Amino acid sequence: MQSVALIDYGSGNLRSAEKALVRAAAGTSQIVVTSDPEIVAAADRVVLPGVGAFAACMKALSERPGLIEAMTEAVQVKGRPFLGVCVGMQLLATRGLEFGETPGLGWIPGDVRRVEPNDPAAKIPHMGWNTLIDPHGPAPIAGVGEAPMYFTHSFAFFPDDPADVAAYVDHGGKFPAAVAKGHVAGVQFHPEKSQSAGLALLARFLEWRP
């Protein structure tokens, strides 16, 4: 049975992400909530959750000794499939521009910056159900189709290369809702809060063979 390391660095959506992954796995994968570098480095897949501010999440991740190095070994060296959720996706960026400038993991070049709607009726934070635009790229994201997903955020990840955007969303203007580069993928929305469509996305990630 494959092992899935769900990274524990104090994120607020950790337990809901764990429950959703367990449901999506349906006994086919072992979901391990962990900050142990040895377990992470040996995992078959890695999931990074996250809610809150970019700088605080990056600080919390960095304060777990050896954790970023273990994630890098599993994902960047061994090529294990990776999924980032909400701020877990944003941390893939080169830097976050929330409360100053904070370096990210740099796995997908780009910036995380505040969403600035063109429509004054579009409130920030962007919160609630919204439909993805042009979901494509890897199977976990391409298979979403037009099912609505649940969002709650004020900042978004803007990759330097538009080819790294795997889906968009419109909230007073279009911006990235999912990213993908090789075996690394991330979603701004919360699959764990997106009912059957979100569970289906997680199930496809667990079966993904990049």
From TrEMBL:
Could you tell me what reaction this enzyme catalyses?
L-glutamine + H2O = L-glutamate + NH4(+); 5-[(5-phospho-1-deoxy-D-ribulos-1-ylimino)methylamino]-1-(5-phospho-beta-D-ribosyl)imidazole-4-carboxamide + L-glutamine = D-erythro-1-(imidazol-4-yl)glycerol 3-phosphate + 5-amino-1-(5-phospho-beta-D-ribosyl)imidazole-4-carboxamide + L-glutamate + H(+)
Where would you find this protein in the cell?
A: Cytoplasm
GO:BP terms for this protein?
Answer: L-histidine biosynthetic process
> Keywords of this protein's UniProt record, alphabetized?
Amino-acid biosynthesis, Cytoplasm, Glutamine amidotransferase, Glycosyltransferase, Histidine biosynthesis, Hydrolase, Lyase, Transferase
Please give the pathway this protein is involved in.
Amino-acid biosynthesis; L-histidine biosynthesis; L-histidine from 5-phospho-alpha-D-ribose 1-diphosphate: step 5/9
Tell me its EC number(s), please: 4.3.2.10, 3.5.1.2
The active-site annotation reads 86 (nucleophile), 190, 192
Indicate whether Amino-acid biosynthesis appears among the record's keywords: yes
- Give the highest taxon in the source lineage: Bacteria
Record-annotated Glutamine amidotransferase domain positions: 6-205
User: Do the record's keywords include Glycosyltransferase?
Assistant: yes
Recorded hits in SUPFAM superfamilies, A to Z, give: Class I glutamine amidotransferase-like (SSF52317)
> Its Gene Ontology molecular function terms?
glutaminase activity; imidazoleglycerol-phosphate synthase activity; lyase activity
Where is this protein chiefly located?
A: cytoplasm
Q: Which Pfam families match?
A: GATase
Q: Which GO terms describe its cellular component?
A: cytoplasm
Its subunit composition reads: Heterodimer of HisH and HisF.
Q: Which PANTHER family match?
A: IMIDAZOLE GLYCEROL PHOSPHATE SYNTHASE SUBUNIT HISH (PTHR42701:SF1)
User: What the protein does?
Assistant: IGPS catalyzes the conversion of PRFAR and glutamine to IGP, AICAR and glutamate. The HisH subunit catalyzes the hydrolysis of glutamine to glutamate and ammonia as part of the synthesis of IGP and AICAR. The resulting ammonia molecule is channeled to the active site of HisF.
- Protein name as catalogued: Imidazole glycerol phosphate synthase subunit HisH
**Source organism of this protein record:** Phenylobacterium haematophilum
